[in-house]
Specification:
Number of helices: 9
Largest sheet: 6 strands, antiparallel
Distance between the termini: 22 Å
Order of helices and strands: EHHEEHEHEEHEEEEEEEHHHEEEH
Helix content: 25-40%
Oligomer: single chain
Number of strands: 16
Structural class: alpha+beta
Radius of gyration: 20 Å
Length: 246
């Protein structure tokens, strides 16, 4: 039985994948052509910065020195674009000039896979508190602990499919509005996060990021998704997913 593809690599594994030396990988990281990634241990949400209120967005973009103290009220956070913890990427220059805290670095200049600026937030009652990731150099290494190189990033760097050559969803010859929405949001998910969504991932992503535009909702009693007044049964959604998946 073939082994499933690895989702991430350490420095040695990345060098083997790319067919180069360990020092080559470090060179590309520090020359800002390869990005390291991590999964935050404490953040509740990852927020796309461009969806933040203007004042908060400016604070994150312009602040230098210690990390910004930003809090969003329930009303302010109601329109942000966010998702639960996933891979977060950063560029080496941002890490190198981040603030030192207790023997590590406080890093908040982060990206999603597609390169959009994102930030980490924790839930504090009915408010959201801006946060940072504390990264420490691994013992005897020149890069931070618990930071890895994802398969998607290595493929992007080496010119593989994730760089935009191939998308995971394709429209059928006869496509209705539901098909167009599922394919568009499935490929958008892939572009942002570097991996194809599962059926559940796609369902949640479409409702979370496009529910208003698509007029999409879910009836838990009847287990139907609604696109406006058009129902799509949960099983039918799964069947469509399999049909559109390349």
């Amino acid at each position: 039985m073939p082994l499933p593809a690895r989702e991430h690599f350490d420095l040695d594994g990345a060098a083997e994948f790319l067919g180069c030396s360990r020092s080559d990988v470090l060179y590309y990281i520090k020359e800002d052509t390869l990005r390291l990634a991590f999964k935050s241990e404490h953040a509740d949400l990852i927020v796309v910065n461009e969806s933040l209120p203007e004042r908060a967005h400016k604070a994150l973009n312009w602040f230098e020195g210690a990390y910004p103290q930003v809090v969003l009220t329930a009303k302010q956070s109601s329109k942000i674009s966010s998702y639960v913890n996933d891979w977060v990427y950063f560029q080496w220059p941002d890490y190198a000039r981040s603030s030192g805290v207790d023997g590590g670095q406080a890093l908040w200049q982060l990206q999603d896979f597609g390169g959009k600026s994102v930030s980490l937030w924790v839930v504090d009652g009915d408010k959201l508190q801006f946060s940072f990731e504390w990264l420490k150099l691994a013992e005897g290494e020149s890069w931070p602990e618990s930071c890895l190189l994802t398969l998607a990033e290595l493929q992007r760097f080496s010119g593989g499919a994730v760089g935009g050559v191939k998308e995971p969803f394709k429209l059928p010859k006869k496509a209705d509005e539901v098909a167009e929405a599922m394919v568009a949001y499935g490929n958008r998910f892939y572009a942002e996060r570097g991996f194809a969504p599962t059926v559940k991932d796609l369902q949640g992503y479409m409702i979370e990021t496009g529910g208003r535009d698509l007029q999409m909702s879910y009836d838990s009693k009847g287990q139907d998704f609604f696109f406006g007044d058009k129902p799509v049964a949960k099983r039918a959604f799964s069947d469509r997913y399999k049909t559109y998946r390349v």
